[in-house]
Design a protein that fits this description.
- The protein has helices at about 1-20, 25-35, 40-60.
- With about 60 residues, it is mainly alpha-helical.
- Helix 1 crosses helix 2 (about 25-35).
- The radius of gyration is 15 Å and the shape is flat.
- The two termini are about 15 Å apart.
- Keywords: Membrane, Transmembrane, Transmembrane helix.
């Protein structure tokens, strides 16, 4: 189980690094816009992301 968790973390880091590597200026602008969002919107985005990830894991497994 620990190996799979490590693999998942590594893949997450690779995927999160793609956009700043390819489009650093646009990525920075997007992060600034996200930082301006109210807490409620950020929480809703986080919840939607978690639910989508859980659903995809369920479907793929």
């Amino acid at each position: 189980m620990w190996q799979e968790l490590g693999i998942a973390v590594c893949l997450m880091l690779v995927l999160e690094g793609i956009l700043p590597f390819l489009y650093p200026r646009r990525w920075r602008e997007t992060i600034v816009q996200v930082a301006r969002l109210p807490d409620r919107h950020l929480r809703l985005i986080g919840l939607a992301s978690m639910l989508l990830g859980t659903a995809l894991l369920y479907l793929l497994h």
